[in-house]
């Protein structure tokens, strides 16, 4: 990080060109999209160069911050700083796996078409974990037996899971049963908070392998499903386009768009992702094969694993985004190899690991940390030896922590048989809320000055670790002068380690006088870490940002409760 120097200098001519090009939709954070959206660039599709992130090169002159906690995962909000940024990784739960193949619906798969197929799995294959506030349950959809059943497990705490006995396949937790002519692959469910028809509260996309009479090879086909309860599903449409396996869907609430994350093999890139958006869920079915635009792939900052000499380049295996606070959080599964044939012959799982990316326009992802957020152990005998992959809903918010659920494969079935798709189990890892990146100061004082921001809220909050030091804040005008009484000297130092802390100034806590006025916030730290800040309209600290796949205490897709959702 530059020391007290602007992080980005914009030439006047460049700013003029950017303004001329960007005459499309205005986003919640001040970013103006280009008129032609999403951008189509077939040249970049074949390149492994690191893609640009336009809003970081040319951020808005003033950034509205009324939606969600403001995270320091990139330099979008920072004008200058002497702090240093640290990226943090998830911590695996000691009780993993939280679900493993044990039932008749899980211990045999369909990969080999044999009755004793060893591809035992009990894990999401994309799928998802959502918290449903209607019955206060975590709900997990997962693959029972490779390519076989779609099952549902439930939990009160997100850690201890039960398999409810349902009526779809009597006495089991199967919600979409296996059929010999229909092998499920990726299943992508979504809790639709915008649904007006209760019968369509849950949406889903499924990629299946379909038996065709007279042909030995199965054909891929994709379908849209709806459900009132996540248990009883109705096939509503077949998607016209040809897509590859592991294609998924998600909803972008910032722009009110349904998006298909299309998996395709791209020349020079191998497995990669294409993008297609619509205004409504049913419109996804009308997508034609040539409609999606190139979106993302592994690039030159994703090096190959030297322990896998047969794999010269990495590939992007999965890309699962979800709205978290003020950003779109992306879970990237990077494929290091080997390819399926080698893994099948050797009877060990392929190597994929999870990294994170962050988007503020819903399309361009910054990936500043290229280390594994959740890694495979690569050790024979471990449940998470390899094939570590994110779930479609990425994470839930549980008090002060984020729960990241993921799948992993051991390569060993319960009966001891080995197969590269055997031993699929479900795991969870934890991260501090907002804890993707922190801006840190050591025992010496450090500071961070935001870019010009506006807000309609009245109370400043931070997520900070300051048990051994302190954090103070002051608000300054366009000339950099402190605005009384919101000065650093008047600020009561924060000296706790909490994910939600109110900033107080002596005799003044209400920021109403500054509503809608461009200001900057200067944070002053000593032996402390700053993860996020936000200005809330309530003294509870409700951020009104998105809470990923939900969590206890939240009643909808956004944080409207603040402190009451804390432990």
UniProtKB/TrEMBL annotation:
The keyword Signal applies. Residues 1-19 form the signal peptide. This is Glycosyl hydrolase family 32 domain protein. Keywords: Hydrolase, Signal. It comes from Chthoniobacter flavus Ellin428. GO terms for molecular function: hydrolase activity. InterPro entries: Glyco_hydro_beta-prop_sf.
């Amino acid at each position: 990080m530059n020391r007290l120097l602007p992080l980005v200098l914009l030439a006047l001519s460049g700013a003029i060109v950017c303004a001329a090009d960007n005459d499309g939709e205005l986003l919640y954070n001040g970013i103006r999209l280009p008129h032609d959206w999403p951008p189509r660039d077939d040249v970049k599709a074949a390149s492994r160069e690191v893609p640009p992130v336009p809003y970081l090169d040319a951020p808005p002159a003033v950034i509205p911050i009324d939606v969600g906690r403001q995270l320091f995962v990139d330099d979008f909000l920072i004008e200058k700083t002497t702090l240093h940024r640290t990226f943090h990784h998830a911590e695996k739960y000691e009780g993993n796996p939280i679900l493993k193949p044990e039932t008749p619906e899980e211990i045999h798969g369909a990969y080999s078409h044999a009755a004793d197929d060893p591809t035992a799995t009990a894990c999401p294959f994309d799928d998802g974990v959502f918290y449903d506030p209607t019955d206060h349950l975590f709900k997990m959809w997962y693959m029972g037996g490779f390519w076989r059943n779609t099952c549902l497990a439930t939990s009160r705490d997100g850690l201890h899971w039960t398999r409810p006995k349902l009526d779809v396949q009597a006495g089991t937790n199967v919600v979409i049963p296996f059929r010999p002519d229909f092998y499920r692959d990726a299943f992508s469910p979504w809790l639709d908070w915008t649904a007006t028809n209760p019968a369509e509260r849950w949406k889903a996309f499924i990629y299946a392998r379909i038996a065709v009479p007279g042909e030995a090879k199965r054909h891929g086909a994709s379908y849209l499903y709806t459900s009132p309860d996540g248990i009883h599903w109705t096939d509503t449409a077949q998607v016209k386009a040809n897509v590859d396996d592991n294609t998924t869907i998600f909803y972008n609430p910032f722009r009110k768009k349904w998006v298909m994350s299309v998996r395709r093999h791209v020349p020079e890139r191998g497995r990669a992702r294409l993008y297609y958006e619509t205004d409504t869920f049913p419109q996804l079915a009308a997508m034609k094969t040539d409609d999606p635009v190139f979106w993302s792939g592994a690039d030159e900052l994703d090096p190959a694993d030297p322990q896998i000499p047969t794999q010269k380049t990495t590939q992007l295996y999965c890309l699962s985004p979800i709205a978290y606070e003020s950003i779109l959080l992306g879970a990237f599964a990077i494929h290091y190899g080997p390819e399926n044939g080698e893994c099948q012959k050797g009877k060990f799982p392929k190597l994929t690991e999870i990294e994170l990316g962050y988007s503020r326009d819903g399309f361009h992802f910054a990936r500043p940390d290229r280390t594994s957020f959740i890694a495979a152990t690569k050790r024979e005998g471990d449940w998470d030896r390899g094939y570590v992959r994110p779930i479609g809903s990425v994470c839930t918010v549980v008090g002060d922590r984020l729960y990241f659920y993921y799948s992993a494969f051991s390569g060993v079935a319960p009966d001891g048989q080995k197969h590269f798709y055997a031993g699929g189990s479900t795991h969870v890892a934890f991260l501090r809320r907002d804890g993707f990146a922190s801006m840190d100061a050591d025992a010496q004082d450090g500071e961070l000055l935001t870019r010009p921001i506006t807000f309609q809220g009245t109370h400043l909050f931070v997520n900070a670790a300051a048990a051994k030091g302190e954090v103070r804040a002051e608000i300054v005008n366009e000339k950099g002068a402190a605005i009384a009484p919101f000065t650093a000297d008047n600020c009561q130092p924060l000296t706790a380690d909490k994910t939600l802390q109110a900033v107080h100034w002596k005799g003044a806590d209400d920021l109403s006088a500054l509503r809608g006025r461009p200001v900057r916030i200067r944070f002053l730290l000593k032996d402390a870490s700053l993860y996020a800040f936000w200005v809330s309209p309530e003294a509870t600290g409700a951020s009104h940002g998105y809470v990923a796949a939900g969590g206890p205490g939240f009643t909808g897709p956004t944080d409207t409760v603040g402190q009451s959702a804390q432990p």
